[in-house]
Amino acid sequence: MATSDLRTWRIDTRDFTGRGREESRILGGECFDRLGEDAHVVGAVEATIATVRSPRGKAGIRLSIVAALEAQCQRCMQPVRLPVATEENIEFAATVDGFADDGLDQWDTLEHDGRFDVLQLVEDVLLLALPVAPKHEQCEPQGATYAGEKVLPFAALAGWKGGR
To answer: What angle do CA 38, 41, 47 make, to 5 degrees?
Structure first.
């Protein structure tokens, strides 16, 4: 697997799927601009694309990703590590018109014929792997314990009611 510090990874979908190719890359966190707003990559992202045929017989790719992301826990506000190991099946079609919901839940159909940005797809998959509210399996909310005292998080607001 070659290390890639390039910010591009594009394939010609006809050539790639026509030749039955497979490519693997190790991508650094600097490749993912949009991801930096919510989380960051710990180490590197291992991504592999391989030619596959969908159940409809359309050309496509299987994208496999193994990575570790780090985000802020929404309870304790400390970093939480989020492992990502996913496999996505994508078929290419000249047009998605006429594609009904046929129960192929394991396949996404993309209207595409030509150059395809794999790096953007990898980043999309990583973003979708992030939970809405990342948190540790077990942790204490920040400031939740005061040596056995009952915590009243909205007690400070009681002073504001005095003006009513």
So the answer is: 120
Give residue-wise pLDDT tens across range 14-41. 889 889 999 999 999 999 988 877 799 9
The contacts of residue 6 (CB under 8 Å, 6+ apart) are: 31
Contact 26, 2 (CB under 8 A): yes
- CA separation, residue 16 to residues 42, 85, 87, 116 (Å): 30, 24, 18, 10
Q: What dihedral do alpha carbons 97, 17, 5, 39 form, nearest 10°?
A: 40
Dihedral sign for Cα 133, 138, 141, 143, please.
Answer: negative
Total number of residues shown for the chain: 164
- The three-class DSSP label of residue 159 is helix
Instruction: Indicate the helix (H) or strand (E) that contains 17.
Output: helix 13-18
The answer to whether 1 and 23 have CB atoms below 8 angstroms apart is no
Return d(Cα 7, Cα 162) in angstroms, integer: 57
pTM: 0.77
Give 2-12 pLDDT, tens digit per residue: 444 457 899 99
List, run by run, the mean pLDDT of 10-residue segments along the chain (164 residues): 63 89 93 85 95 87 96 91 94 70 70 85 93 89 61 72 62
